[in-house]
Amino acid sequence: MYYTIKAQIYLGEESGFVAECIELPIVTQGKTLDEVVKNLREAISLHLDGEDLASLGFAPHPPIVINYEMELVCA
Predict the structure, then answer these.
(1) Other CB atoms within 10 Å distance of the CB of residue 61
(2) pLDDT > 70? residue 75
(3) Domains of the chain by range and CATH?
C-alpha cells in the first residue's frame, strides 16, 4: 500500500519546471515552482476524482511528497 503520492520536479528543457508522479501517470508543468506545485495538486485531484483510493493501493488522504532536482553550482 502507498502511504504517500511521490512526485519529482525538475527544470524544463526550454523553461519553467516539470512535475511528474512516480506511481501515477501524471505530468504537468509551470513557469515557477509555486505554479508547478499548484498544477500538480490539481492534476492529481482530477486524476483521482471519483476513484476508490484503496482499490488503487493508496491509504486514505495520502500526502504528496516531492523531490526537486537541482543542478550543482560550483564556484
Answers:
(1) 6
(2) no
(3) 5-68 (3.30.160)
Q: How far does CA 55 lie from the centroid of its chain?
A: 20
Distance CA 14, CA 29 (A): 12
Mean of all residue pLDDT scores within the chain: 92
Q: Of the candidates 2, 17, 16, 15, which has an alpha carbon nearest to the alpha carbon of residue 68? A: 17
Q: Rounded to whole angstroms, how far apart are CA atoms 21 and 6?
A: 6
Q: What is the percent of the chain where pLDDT is above 90?
A: 67
Q: Which three cell numbers stand for residue 73?
A: 553550482
Average pLDDT over residues 43-61: 91
